[in-house]
């Protein structure tokens, strides 16, 4: 099974100069918890989550309209391509402890998003000796890795 078989294609995104109030409204309107952040050329440069927005507003003592996305994102992008095997994408999610991966083409342009919701809805139960392309066990292993507490160095 390929990422393109599971991913969400119609994805909202924002720019680095979008303020957090606008980003939160986009998430609310789209019923999602994260947005890919695109540069002016349309390449994915990061992700912003609803948690990122909440933490930025709570810790910076500014309104969401006064903070822009680029002040909040890490700049680290973990993604996948539409033709990647779904199990490789799951391994990336496990390794990086992320629930969502932007799906990009060879030029870095957004094609969709792969999130745990998509994966859960496509998982199947193992029946007999035939293994499904995406099993409940695959999903649980990935979730377990994502949910594991990270070891904080230097604290």
Draw up the topology in text.
Layout: E1 14-15, H1 20-30, E2 34-38, E3 44-49, H2 50-60, H3 86-96, E4 100-104, E5 110-115, H4 116-122, H5 136-147
Parallel strand pairs: 1-2
Antiparallel strand pairs: 2-3, 4-5
Structure description:
- It contains 5 helices and 5 strands.
- The radius of gyration is 17 Å and the shape is globular.
- The strands form 2 sheets. A 3-stranded mixed sheet has the order 1-2-3.
- The model has no long low-confidence stretch (mean pLDDT 92).
- It has 155 residues and is an alpha+beta fold.
- Strand 2 and strand 3 form a beta hairpin.
Q: Could you list some keywords that capture this structure?
A:
single chain, 155 residues, three-stranded mixed sheet, 15% strand, globular
Strand order, sheet with most strands: 1-2-3
What is the H/E order? EHEEHHEEHH
Number of beta strands:
5
Radius of gyration: 17 Å
Mean pLDDT: 92
Distance between the termini: 41 Å
Helix content class: 25-40%
Coarse structural class: alpha+beta
Flag low-confidence runs: none
> What is the percentage of strand-forming residues?
15-25%
Helical segment count: 5
The major beta sheet can be summarized as: 3 strands, mixed
What best-fitting shape do the alpha-carbon axes yield?
A: globular
């Amino acid at each position: 099974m390929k990422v393109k078989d599971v991913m969400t294609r119609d994805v909202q995104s924002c720019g680095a100069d979008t303020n957090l109030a606008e980003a939160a409204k986009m998430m609310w309107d789209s019923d999602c918890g994260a947005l890919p952040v695109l540069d002016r050329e349309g390449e994915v440069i990061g992700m912003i989550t609803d948690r990122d927005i909440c933490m930025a507003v709570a810790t910076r003592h500014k309104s969401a309209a006064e903070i822009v996305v680029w002040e909040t994102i890490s700049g680290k992008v973990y993604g996948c391509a539409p033709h990647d095997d779904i199990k490789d994408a799951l391994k990336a999610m496990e390794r990086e402890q992320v629930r969502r991966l932007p799906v990009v083409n060879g030029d870095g342009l957004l094609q969709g998003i792969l999130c745990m919701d998509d994966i859960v809805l496509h998982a199947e139960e193992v029946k007999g000796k035939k293994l499904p392309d995406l099993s409940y066990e695959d999903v649980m292993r990935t979730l377990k890795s994502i949910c594991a507490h990270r070891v904080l160095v230097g604290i």
